[in-house]
Predict the structure of Ethanolamine ammonia-lyase light chain.
Amino acid sequence: MKIEDQIGEILGAKVVILLVGERPGLGQSESLSCYAVYSPRMATTVEADRTCISNIHQGGTPPVEAAAVIVDLAKRMLEQKASGINMTR
């Protein structure tokens, strides 16, 4: 169970998007990762339900570009009612 699952269940959220800063020493300490999941629930959400966008930083995917990708991802999740491996391209 992850924090996204708890947030989703408590708030009844259709989509939860979590931005996490990477830990120093992992190669890119100023990098962010985005974890997104459709309708997360504590008892039923598994890792394969999550969608990850990583390497968000100036030397990878620039934050402004990543923001547009994340917004598009959230729209597609709502349209498809799915996330992770259950999404179609």
